[in-house]
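Lab notebook, design round three. We kept the backbone fixed and only want residue identities now. Task for the bench partner: fill in a sequence for the structure below.
Input structure tokens:
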């Protein structure tokens, strides 16, 4: 049973490392307006919905920050987490200032 668990765990880690994380790093960061893009079609092309929800943006920030802290391989993520944190602080400030 433990052998099967290890096999599944390794498969999941491999998909995350080789497909999921690179996808989001390449396409997910909105370099024009800040934050993360979240609308993509089945081919990975950017969709038309540009609305950014605070909960989703916060989860992305947490996830990439956690990844950067756990692995030296992803230390390059640190700059993007600062950009996203800045985006969120502007959005949140605009909510409370208005």
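Proposed sequence:
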């Amino acid at each position: 049973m433990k052998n099967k668990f290890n096999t599944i765990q390794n498969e999941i880690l491999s998909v995350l490392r080789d497909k999921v994380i690179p996808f989001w790093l390449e396409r997910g960061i909105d370099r024009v307006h800040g934050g993360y893009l979240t609308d993509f079609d089945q081919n990975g092309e950017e969709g038309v919905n540009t609305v950014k929800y605070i909960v989703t943006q916060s989860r992305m920030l947490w996830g990439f920050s956690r990844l950067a802290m756990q692995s030296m391989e992803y230390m390059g993520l640190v700059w993007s987490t600062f950009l996203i944190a800045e985006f969120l602080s502007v959005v949140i400030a605009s909510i409370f200032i208005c």
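Keep this in mind before ordering anything: The mean pLDDT is 84.
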